[in-house]
Design goal:
Length: 85
């Protein structure tokens, strides 16, 4: 388990597929060692690169981060990176 204070998801950066493959909404769930949801955060993409940034008010002790993609421009979609601090 680790202490998490921020989760950043970078949007699609693939030059060949910039349009039509962007995730516009997702949910970040922070899970404990027993896979129980510690907190759940629906997010909307922001900025030119459609990034997601979750900053927690206080750090959470978690075992895993689960992303659920809830809305995209089309069926197939892409993300670039998941950063957990």
């Amino acid at each position: 388990e680790v202490s998490v204070k921020r989760v950043t998801v970078l949007g699609n950066r693939e030059p060949s597929f910039r349009t039509g493959y962007t995730v516009t909404e997702l949910t970040v769930e922070l899970l404990d060692a027993k896979e129980k949801v510690v907190s759940k955060h629906p997010l909307t993409a922001a900025g030119d690169d459609s990034d997601f940034d979750l900053k927690l008010d206080k750090p959470a002790t978690v075992r895993a981060v689960r992303l659920t993609l809830t809305k995209s421009e089309s069926g197939p979609c892409a993300l670039s990176e998941l950063l957990v601090e």
